[in-house]
Amino acid sequence: MLDLAAKTCLPGLLDLHTHLTDSPEDTADLRVYLTRSEGEALARGRDHARATLLAGFTTVRDVGTYIAWTDRALRDEIAAGRTPGPRMQVRRERAPAPVHGGARDDTDGGDPSRDLGVGPVHGLGREWARVTGMETTRPTATAGTAPGAKAPKSHDYQTHLTWEGNLGTGTATYGGYGRQHRIRVEGKADLVGSAHATFRGDPALHDPEDLLLAAVASCHMLSYLALCARARVEVVAYEDRAHGVLELTPDGGGSFREITLAPRVVLAAGGDAAAATALHDRAAALCFIARSCNFPIHHRPEVTVAAAAPPAPGGTEAP
User: Fold this and answer.
1) Per-residue pLDDT tens for 229-265?
2) The domain 13-132 is classified under which CATH number: 2.30.130.10, 3.30.110.90, 3.90.78.10, 3.40.190.10?
């Protein structure tokens, strides 16, 4: 039973023919798909998913994409709550068995958990409320491990946080307490933090927004370096000046609207810049922190190749 008192219940529309990772103008010249990366297609899909949801469509059947698997990646992001959008069904590979005069089209490979109407509409309440100011509610669904399936591997993380800002009167007044706190992780150095200076924090200390931005940037870097090592792409330098935008709401809350990473990568002499650039898309798809976020994360990588070392004096190669 759902208590809908004082709530606004919105009817959900279904669209049975969408291409969320593509745009109508793309078909004017199909060569665009030869240069568009997986990350660019997925970013386009996120924008289209959000717009579709705000138009009132809570379930769609996506019937294909030219950039392989981006439709499934978008579906999984929405299902995990990382991207606002409608429930998605996606096509599987075409099979020769004819159905209704055409090739067989079992959306999602016949997985019953992907049927129309199953699962939550992620991001609907938050996005609709932000745009219209209306309060919404929705039921939620919890996904479990299918019978007979192997449980996924997991890693546990623990922190111990202590507030150190009691100046004598606790939180008796908004301006009468400090925002300083200490984060302890067993076996590691303590991290002393505060709120952002805008919210009366200590500007000399890291705030939660700094740490979120750093987590996204560092997780992408570590995922990227691992992929480069496995692909025999030799990276000799890496830096990133990440930028995030936090959007405040009238109710006193807020959320990150987007983060943009701008990694600058230097390869060893003779490196393949094109291959190194392409690995950023894969790193973005695998990054644990990015996959846990529900806002767009853009990537603007720059890859250069170091110059070859000059020959040693006397015409011999340097050792």
Assistant:
1) 999 999 999 999 999 999 999 998 999 999 999 999 9
2) 3.30.110.90
